[in-house]
Design brief:
Radius of gyration: 12 Å
CATH architecture: 2-Layer Sandwich
CATH superfamily: Shew3726-like
Structural class: alpha+beta
Order of helices and strands: EEEEHHHE
CATH class: Alpha Beta
Strand content: 25-35%
Number of domains: 1
Helix content: 25-40%
């Protein structure tokens, strides 16, 4: 089971066309690519991410990291791990 996830802060990108925040994180020594849908940020914050998606991502990064760890375990072979509101349950 993945136990350690560290987000590469320099890799954070607000992809407003795809309505997601993208980043790379080191998971137990391996680099993995993630995308967190705006719907997740809205669910966590109660606000629609418009021009502040990265700010919302930072504000809820602890919760997002926990969800990413779980998703890494459930999708070990995914090249891009997309976090959607269904992952929050």
């Amino acid at each position: 089971m993945a136990s350690n996830l560290k987000i590469d802060q320099d890799s954070l990108i607000d992809n407003d066309r795809e309505r997601q925040v993208e980043f790379t994180a080191e998971v137990d020594g391996d680099d993995r690519d993630f995308a967190v849908k705006y719907a997740v940020l809205k669910e966590l914050s109660g606000d629609e991410p418009e021009n502040d998606a990265l700010e919302l991502f930072e504000r809820f990064s602890d919760e997002i990291v926990d969800v990413c760890v779980e998703a890494t375990v459930s999708r070990p072979s995914a090249s891009l791990i997309v976090i959607s509101e269904g992952d929050l349950e």
